């Protein structure tokens, strides 16, 4: 068994625990395209010759590009923010303020990692005016992911990073390519919707359009598409033209202290 690799980011909805199951369903190919790369767990734990990795979050893609191009400088500079002096609420809020005020892409990339590891629950959230607004996390000793950053930087030499809409990313697919989609999930209840990740909502219209895009590209060219989502009556309906389904039960933390866990059904829908 190959060693599994964790992302250097804490990420709500990350696919580390499901990467084995997802990899078994992903068709063979030379080029994997991810329109919703997030923290990159499938990228890190799959074996394609080349990757095209997209996300609508500009700060995330900016960080990935910088780590790809200047890994040693980035890791050394980021480590300076993981000291006891910076693990204080007043410092966190000052640095968050600086992040929201600056347009310096390198400084933003350093602060993005810092806030991801020092902020509450590893959330990534912006307000309507585009300001990062995750509160301080109060962790005793935030982990600096040096080994994870190094591995990501090495593997990213075989990747192209883009920041665009998922439809644009689908257009990049050529015959024989494989697309894996991990969109923001359909909410399980009316109060569970979480759409502030990039400042752009991903509603039911977008969910249905993504299913249409998968159907179109798989039927018009030899491109396979795998989509993950909550397993609901509604997702079963929009994915009804997929060629294969797999339903899996996943543990979810449903209370703030982490003690309340329940099994939630997720679906993998394969178009080919």
Explain how this protein is built:
There is one protein chain. By secondary structure, the protein is of the alpha/beta class. The protein has 2 domains: 19-57 and 168-271, Rossmann fold; 67-147, Adenine-specific Methyltransferase, Domain 2 (Adenine-specific Methyltransferase, domain 2), CATH 1.10.1020. It is 36% helix and 17% strand. The protein has 10 helices and 7 strands. The chain has helices at residues 19-25, 41-44, 58-69, 71-79, 89-101, 105-118, 146-155, 166-170, 204-220, 233-238, and strands at residues 31-34, 50-54, 159-162, 178-181, 224-230, 244-253, 261-271. The chain has a 7-stranded mixed sheet. Strand 4 (178-181), helix 9 and strand 5 (224-230) form a beta-alpha-beta unit. Helix 3 (58-69) packs across helix 7. It is globular, with a radius of gyration of 19 Å. The two termini are 28 Å apart. Residues 191-199 have low confidence and may be disordered.
Count of domains: 2
Low-confidence residue ranges: 191-199
Strand order of the largest sheet: 3-2-1-4-5-7-6
How many β-strands, per DSSP? 7
Q: What proportion of the residues is helical, as a percent range?
A: 25-40%
Brief sketch in words of this structure:
With 272 residues, this protein is α/β, with parallel strands linked by helices.
